[in-house]
Amino acid sequence: MPSTSLRGLLALGGLPAAAADSVLFSGADPLFRSPYRLAAPGAASIAAAGLAAADLWALKTGRQQALQVDLIAAAAALRSNHYLKIDGRQPPRPRDEVTGFYQLQDQRWIHLHCNFFNLRDRNLAVLGVGPDRAAVAAAVALWHGEALEQAIFDAGGCCALVRNEAQWLATPQAAAVAALPLLEIIKIGEAPPEPMPAGDRPLSGIRALDLTRVLAGPTCGKTLAEHGAQVLRVSREGLPDSGMFDLDTGLGKRSTFLDLREPAQAQQLKSLIREADVFSQAYRPQSLDLRGFSPEALAQLRPGLVYVTLSAWGHSGPWSLRRGYDTIVQSANGMAWRPEGQMPAFLPVSAQDYVAGYLMAYGAMVALGRRAREGGSWLVRISLAGTGHWIRQHGLMTVEQFNACPGEISTDQLRNCMTDSDSPAGRLTHLGPIVKMSETTPRWDLPAVPLGSHPPAWR
Fold first, then answer.
1. pTM for the full predicted model
2. Mind listing the domains of the chain with CATH numbers?
């Protein structure tokens, strides 16, 4: 199954299908008690990113590589932050006390995303209550599902009415998602070819700006870093973040603060872009356009730029401008739905997030290869909803099949996946790079650091 999925990804990127033959998959799938087959799309997306890195290495040197991906390690990567420890202890999971599922007047369920204080305040303003779970439950119980969902999105909040798969497929947004490719790599400007910089790693000399949050987008930057790119994460002081779990996605990166609402700091970012190769962002479609950071504007500012963008729902359809995260998309597309009125529950892994992150990195590296061969500026586009649609296409297991799954990865199985590194926050224990490459061993050269640890400058 992962080999078939990998060939489909190679076709999307225009890489030869025969490249899949250089990847050895090992391990068993399924692992987790979920109707969805999760390890196969995870392993395929990780292998695709590895093959794109190997293709860039071949561009530099003419030498090919053999790759290995273990499905157990790939499954672990789909909840990488679950295994993070700081000085031997798991950090507390970032979660707001009122985030969760609530039952509506029509007995359906809605999920309120309140992990970020700005979204929590907008959600609660619609309900007219404070941050008290019982008060929120009582207020939600007065609403019908579609009405509350629409009211919260109109107010700039974030939620999702829980739908089963049939209800999701009946929405116009599901049709829009199904009509889009999983991954788009589009030429958006002319520029002369740029050979890959010299160096002993596939992405040596490549500079990438990471303007993303939570899991998917930061996983893209982390993956570029493991193949040698210089990655600078850009956030804003005071912007809601993912707490200590930013250390897991921050491996191999430097981190700086810039406030794009301030003209001088926006100009600093543009100065960084002029010397960058990749610009990755995960804000809602059009959010950065209004500040002069659209793909087209940046392709003019820096001809030859690879612009990578992630959205929740895709760039077309009635929900395209809505906020969304993995949990929100799971709620809407049937992944979190449970039968017979049971409370919904999320998948045991953040598959949409992590798979989308690896696919973003894959698209970025394919675009760098196209830039080296033919020139041009490139736009890479992917969505969480589109990723979920692709995962669903791997088929569903029967109840008997997934109940027979182990449900957890044992300590012995994890042992070969884990590594340690020092950081300003303490000694980190975390997953190492999942793909194994015969010539350019993936690794992170820099420790994970707290957000805003560095000045806004390239090394």
1. 0.96
2. 2-92+177-317+347-437 (3.40.50.10540)
